[in-house]
Amino acid sequence: MNRIREIKNLNKLKYSLHKQWIWGNKENFYLSQDYLQKINFSIQDLNKEIQYLSKPTMKDVIYVIVLIDWINESIEKIQQLLKKGLGNNYIYQDLDLVLKAKGYLRAIRSFVVAHPLSTNRHKKYGLDGDFICVDIRSKTSPFVKMDAYKNQWFYLSVDGMKSNAIGQPIDFVLYGYSQSIDQNKFYKYIGVSFSDLYGVAELLVDSLYELDKNLKNLKKEVIKK
Predict the structure, then answer these.
(1) Which of 24, 116, 172, 195 could lock 2 by a disulfide, CB 3.0 to 4.6 Å apart?
(2) Average pLDDT, stretch 68-85?
(3) DSSP of the chain, one letter per residue?
(4) pLDDT tens digits, one per residue of 14-38
């Protein structure tokens, strides 16, 4: 298994996101704190899950993807709740990386969890409706080990879909078919690394810390204008 770093929790948020006045009203403030708690619980669960990922089950894979998606959606909701769209008025130095990570997360969530038989809106990640996902297997599965034809192997990462990727280090395999390659005759193996998925979560959490830091110099008087 590729090395996975634990994701830092939100205990060190210290500038603005816990201040009530920045949300405009009490309702938004309380809701924002619920979202922050949701993120922190998801981080804790992701870190606990690391010990089981050397031999992941289908449930482990889906659980990790869903937890990261919860973090992503909660951060988006927090940005929307901030008064006068303050969450959109800052420059994050790693914005391009975050946008790429979010695109990857949406693609793999669609392919594995939401629309495995019809994912077609993520062409950048090789998922334009051609591939369908029918199963999730461990990389140690006997069926995976038997098939050594490199043109049957792909690797899905934050950078997109790579073909002929049989030697790529992976943690689990998405079983699927392709209409364009062989009219769905033979299995295709799409390898995925947990380090990519956890890297997405890490970037998302870092962006939340950056937002918190960016808001530290805002004054009530400025926000009221």
Answers:
(1) 195
(2) 91
(3) ----PPPP-STT--SSTT-GGGGSSHHHHHHHHHHHHHHHHHHHHHHHHGGGTTS--HHHHHHHHHHHHHHHHHHHHHHHHSGGGGGGSS--TTHHHHHHHHHHHHHHHIIIII-TTT--SBGGGTBSSSEEEEEEEETT-HHHHH---GGGEEEEETTEEEES-TTS--SEEEEEEEHHHHTT-S-EEEEE-HHHHHHHHHHHHHHHHHHHHHGGG--HHHHH-
(4) 878 988 888 989 999 999 999 999 9
